[in-house]
Q: What sequence folds into this?
DNA sequence: TAGGTTTTGTACCGATGAGTATTAAACTAT
DNA sequence: ATAGTTTAATACTCATCGGTACAAAACCTA
């Protein structure tokens, strides 16, 4: 009954915006990776003290998961949205160009959090690394399913291999992330995409 | 004059094989990255004590450079060798398949040291990160030059863009490295290469 | 055998890592 | 006002980080 307005919970009120703080954490993990982001880096960027971080977000690992969720719903939201494009070609193009834009957007670290977060690391970060592997695989699976449906719809030729095509696109995306981390510009990535899309079915050849 | 045989330098002889120890260090950095590889990891794998490591290889950063050199001359030597193939197409195919093989070779970490070494990291590893960016760029430049020459030789059509083609191939290679780190198998990578090569000039379309 | 030189092993250094105990402060409810 | 509850800030914990001092050991030359 009294649920909509949360009745102003008791106790000292939180003096910071948890959402804003989480956004700052996203940026730190994005630029430095799980292992390279120290709690001092995080608390400094978030503008809060260490115990506040632990009270609000749990330990470093839990904070990282929340950061990944936030990333998926924020900067990387184009990714799931792209799957709703009408044709397989437009799905893939929106995915590729959207990625290129995100990877080179000024004000953000140049790279993809799911790749930069942890590729190779020490034991302490291994849980985070596995989480990233799992999320990358989930993204690939979603694209594969979308391409599978496209083939059933006749939007891709019957000889096309949705699994391999999805992997091809994801491989490009992850490669672009490494490229962007090394300073490759947006227009350079666009040219790579232009070449890559020549392999796409229905523009001529198939797989 | 007396230079060929080094006259058995004075002092207590080194009790380990520096080359073998370096190979172990390659493996550790390859699997854990610069930041994730602690000196304890390294000395343990190399079978030597900490002061021996510093005496023989310098500090962690210097050791890492030596590891990168060793990697280039050893596991990644196919890379420079590929540039000597007769046609641009065989250059690129040898590069791609050689990479897929290295990335999925049993007994080695699955991934490329130049990518796994450090993508995003804390301040302490930033020098290593920059070194890797520079080495990746050097590899791309070498391929670009080779493709440039191919175009001048008529081995690539005059409308081809060697810079973009080189970047496309390198992007694929780096993407495959991320894929391999996530468990993608060799045959799956082969299928990606098969799709990717459909974009290559002289098999039909151009750029 | 004695002196000089280099490596080895142990034990340490200060700095920083993640995580927490504790008390003061700021709020609500009675 | 007073009690109960939650957050805030300081200051700490212990483990590990990269790097090194020091003395014993193992070699060469003389």
A:
């Amino acid at each position: 009954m009294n649920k909509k307005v949360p009745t102003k919970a008791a106790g000292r009120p939180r003096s910071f915006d948890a959402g804003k703080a989480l956004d700052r954490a996203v940026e730190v993990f994005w630029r430095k990776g799980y292992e390279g982001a120290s709690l001092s880096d995080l608390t400094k960027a978030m503008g809060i003290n260490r115990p506040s971080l632990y009270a609000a977000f749990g330990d470093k690992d839990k904070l990282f998961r929340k950061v990944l969720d936030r990333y998926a719903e924020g900067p990387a939201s184009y990714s799931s949205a792209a799957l709703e494009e009408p044709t397989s070609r437009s799905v893939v193009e929106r995915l590729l160009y959207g990625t290129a834009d995100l990877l080179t957007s000024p004000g953000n670290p140049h790279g993809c959090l799911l790749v930069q977060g942890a590729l190779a690391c020490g034991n302490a970060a291994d849980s985070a690394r596995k989480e990233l592997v799992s999320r990358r695989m989930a993204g690939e699976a979603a694209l594969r399913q979308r391409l599978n449906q496209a083939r059933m719809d006749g939007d891709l030729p019957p000889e096309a291999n949705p699994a391999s095509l999805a992997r091809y696109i994801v491989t490009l995306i992850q490669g672009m992330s490494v490229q962007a981390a090394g300073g490759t510009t947006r227009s350079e990535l666009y040219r790579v995409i232009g070449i890559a899309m020549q392999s796409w079915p229905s523009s001529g050849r198939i797989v």
Notes: Residues 126-152 of chain B form the longest helix (27 residues).
